[in-house]
């Protein structure tokens, strides 16, 4: 836990949900280091160094106070003109969702842009991204675990409306699966 705040449980999901969310960055753009928020402590934990020679194509993290079907907070990729350090809080404008499975578990990723990055003000939907950027994100997730012998399947990208639905569902799942249990302890 950082101070008195746990980045998953105590940080707000955002004031303008689901269009703009707070993202807690775990992994900076360009990194091969897979960091995760340690669920018990809230500190950043080294999960592994990627075996592949690939690097994360966007800042990667979670949306606080969400819970997804893979048993973790909802993942988010935040496109930004800069690489952000772990535990940075970012207002992220949601533009779409990438649907995928990781080892046969549903593990979709919210796609967003940093709200306070003026170079990205023109991007309001997944269709505004350059085709190459979309392909780079898809290729990364299709390939990054192959040398570990793990299967990841990317099914494609959908609109921000689909992302909004996923975010709203994960906020409700957090209340049902995590918050209620924490209050009963």
Describe the structure.
With 185 residues, the protein is an alpha+beta fold. 20% of the residues lie in helices and 31% in strands. It is built from 2 helices and 9 strands, in the order E-E-E-E-E-E-E-E-H-E-H. Strands 1-4-5-8-6 form a 5-stranded mixed β-barrel. Strands 2-3 form a two-stranded antiparallel ribbon. The longest helix is centred in the last third of the chain and has 24 residues, at 160-183. The radius of gyration is 15 Å and the shape is globular. The mean pLDDT is 95.
Write the layout of secondary structure elements.
Blueprint: E1 20-27, E2 33-37, E3 44-49, E4 59-62, E5 75-79, E6 89-102, E7 105-106, E8 109-114, H1 131-143, E9 152-158, H2 160-183
Parallel strand pairs: 5-8
Antiparallel strand pairs: 1-4, 1-6, 2-3, 4-5, 6-7, 6-8, 6-9
